[in-house]
């Protein structure tokens, strides 16, 4: 029994322990559940709070909705209206979409256009840039070649100048041209039936070719005349003023190169000297019309050419002064002096020679001119003062030798290349650049100034007293004219024969022209002859004078021995036929 009791007891004990553990677990579970319960209570309280808030919000919203719904409900559109509106809206939307698409498309096109234009512009700019670079290099190249060409041009210019002067010297510093004027209404032969017949050559003087003139005259009771003369140039009656000036032009180049130049018209009265030198003149004014005119004479053409050449070479800064004198009855009269304008017998300018054999000319008035027009206007103003007379040969015979001088003054003190290169005698006749000759008007200027002179000389006509029919004071004029022309012939004769003494002082004319009658000054003598039989004796005399002048040329250009001495063809006495 006790063993049973012990077992029972242990069983109970274990059971008690088991139960105790279960109770403990249950108690723990209760605690847990109580905690959970408390948490749930808390949550519930929270939700309840939230729900309360939501309820009040809902209530508020509901009341708000109600407040809002009330008016809407009264104006609210009906469903078809809404449908219609929706349809309209859809259409609007569609239109909007279409126009946006259109705008978009246009913008895209513009953009594309703009882009392609920009691309083109960029390409063009690139091309331009490349072209610019090419042009720049070309310009550089051209500039360099221009410099080279300019340098070569300067060199060639110097050579040209040298060659030109050599050529002029080879042609002769003294050249003789002959111009035969046409038969004119005042000529006796003009109405002759033979002269109307074009198959018979009019007159007795003919240009055979450019260098030969033939005088052929078979008069009853006179010996037959059949003579030819050669000159550097012969102009027939039909040759124009322009052609004549064409041969004068090169001399103006020589003038700019620093040489004294003289163009001198020689011949019988009425044979066209003034026409050749100045141009045709109107009866009233005695002055040629000097506007643009195809018959302009050498003087106005030379004035234009001179200023053209000066303008081509502005670096030389040349100044031009003009003086105009007439040699009348062996007196030099200054046509530019103020007194001369009021009194025809005006101030005389004498050419004298001092003991030291230097020519001293009381200088004529020198007017500066700045253009060809100034030059021409000056001549036009003074020419009416020139002494004239109506003779039996023609109505407006010049009774004096007219000398128009243009003096060129340059700033350069060292002289022209022509001065340094040209051969020739050391003093007289050397190019005038670089020296102011003591007797010349240029001597008044400061010593460093240099100059060259252009002299245009319209000589009074040699006259056959019997033909011109002059008497009294006109006869005295004629004697004086013929004497001075004979003195000119003597001077040229002495030069051609290289005589030690040249009689410049025998006449005021030769004295005044001394600078240009010798040395390497360029002298062009234009012999003017009439084609008429009436004047054949004077024509032969004139052509003989020309032939004598050519001897001077040969003597100097050839540089050889002096030409053989010939009896002078000229007489100091007036010609009487
Ligand atoms: N080549 C020519 N063509 C047309 N007319 C001319 C020509 N030569 C001269 N004449 C005319 O002949 C006339 C006389 O000419 P000009 O006055 O030039 O002679 P000149 O030799 O100067 O005379 P002078 O010595 O007496 O003054 C003028 O009317 C002139 O217009």
Automatic annotation (TrEMBL):
Any one Gene Ontology BP term: microtubule-based movement
Localization annotation: Cytoplasm, Cytoskeleton
Compositional bias of kind Basic and acidic residues: 343-361
One Gene Ontology term of the molecular function aspect: microtubule binding
Domain Kinesin motor: 173-552
Keywords attached to this entry: ATP-binding, Coiled coil, Cytoplasm, Cytoskeleton, Microtubule, Motor protein, Nucleotide-binding
Location of the region described as Disordered in the Swiss-Prot/TrEMBL record: 343-369, 413-448, 556-577
GO cellular component: microtubule
SMART domains: KISc
Cited InterPro entries: Kinesin-like_fam (IPR027640), Kinesin_motor_CS (IPR019821), Kinesin_motor_dom (IPR001752), Kinesin_motor_dom_sf (IPR036961), P-loop_NTPase (IPR027417)
Coiled coil (UniProt feature): 9-43
Binding locations of ATP: 267-274
Entries under SUPFAM superfamilies matching the protein: P-loop containing nucleoside triphosphate hydrolases (SSF52540)
Protein family (similarity comment): Belongs to the TRAFAC class myosin-kinesin ATPase superfamily. Kinesin family.
Protein's name according to its UniProt entry: Kinesin-like protein
Protein species of origin: Zalophus californianus
Gene: KIF25
